[in-house]
Amino acid sequence: MRLKRRLILQSAGLLLSFFIFIPLVLKLYYDFAKSGLMQFLSLLSTDFNIVMANIGDYVLTLLESAPIVSLSLALAAMLAVIFYIAKLEDVYSDYKKIEI
To answer: Per the count of CB atoms within 10 A, which of 15, 19, 31, 41 is most buried?
Structure first.
């Protein structure tokens, strides 16, 4: 009975964290497009020699324009999904041992 309850709770946690992860990734994509980071990254393919001559300033510009809050929230949600997958696998393996 306890294992069934843990299995249900871990499944609910996985679904909740997954459904939180999706909008956060969409927000991260929107923030990447809004911040202009993609334009800075495209400089690598068009003006590679100029970028390499000023690599320090280029890296600082990339760091300043990165959406840190959205990135950290998306990474935290991704870690929650991975955590719940691991916990669900542990509970499921315990459940299968008892059921067999």
So the answer is: 31
